[in-house]
Design a protein that fits this description.
By secondary structure, the chain is of the alpha+beta class. It has 4 helices and 12 strands, in the order αββαβββββββαββαβ. The protein is globular, with a radius of gyration of 22 Å.
Length: 235
């Protein structure tokens, strides 16, 4: 018996496959694994400008609560976790910092040393200081007034206190306050690509600028990619 149904064209099959892939990638980027890149030096040397990350959106954050309880492995944010979250100042911007204190914790910085619940956090091998100056916590000092001496401050319920690993050059909870738990989007788990040839700061400057940046990236892909950081797990 001859099939009288018109055979689907190859083009249509490709379009259908592309549509399915697009839907799957859109779903996974929203609910499963999100990508993120580092535009600033605030998390050096743990994360470098130009690091591109995979972010686990299942582990914790608002998306976890939209799924059935117990359906997927999840936990709350812990001290020491690196987290991706919506900016407290501008929710349109995503930020990355390290959670150093949880709700109810008392945070204090004394001459660059971090204390949580009045105990100094001695094991901070990831934290670096590149400025020998120590600023007192005085409102009259606009620059760095709360950078080196801060608190004591009690973290409110449903919030986290987050700081950059590059402590002297990080704009974080010392300046704009704690991160609401609802702002947390996930935890970065792996660097899939690290490019040392310049990275967008996220500000839209038109198609001309975007195309020029794409060209520079393409030209420097092999020579400026930090190959040793490829597939590096994030701690």
């Amino acid at each position: 018996m001859v099939d009288t149904q018109p055979q689907r064209s190859v083009l249509r099959e490709y379009l259908e496959a592309l549509l399915v892939a697009t839907v799957f990638l859109g779903f996974s980027n929203t609910f499963v694994v999100k990508t993120f890149y580092i535009p600033s030096q605030s998390m050096e040397n743990t994360l470098l400008v130009g690091d591109h990350l995979f972010v686990n959106r299942f582990l914790f954050g608002p998306t976890t609560h939209s799924l059935a309880d117990g359906a997927l492995p999840s936990r709350g944010v812990r001290r020491g976790d690196i987290v991706i979250f919506r900016s407290v100042k501008d929710p349109q911007i995503d930020m990355v910092k390290r959670c150093v204190a949880l709700a109810g914790d008392v945070v204090e910085v004394r001459n660059k040393r971090l204390f949580v619940n009045r105990t100094e956090i001695a094991d901070e091998s990831f934290a670096i200081h590149r400025d020998a100056r120590i600023y007192p916590n005085q409102p009259a000092l606009r620059e760095g007034a709360q950078r080196d001496n801060f608190g004591p401050y009690t973290v409110p319920e449903e919030h986290y206190f987050c700081m950059g690993d590059n402590r002297d050059f990080s704009y974080d909870s010392r300046f704009w306050g704690p991160v609401p738990a609802a702002n947390v989007k996930g935890r970065p788990v792996m660097i899939y690509w690290s490019f040392g040839g310049g990275t967008s700061d996220g500000v839209w400057r038109g198609w001309g600028n975007r195309l020029a940046q794409f060209g520079r990236t393409a030209m420097g892909f092999f020579t400026k990619t930090r190959w040793s950081r490829t597939f590096l797990l994030i701690r």
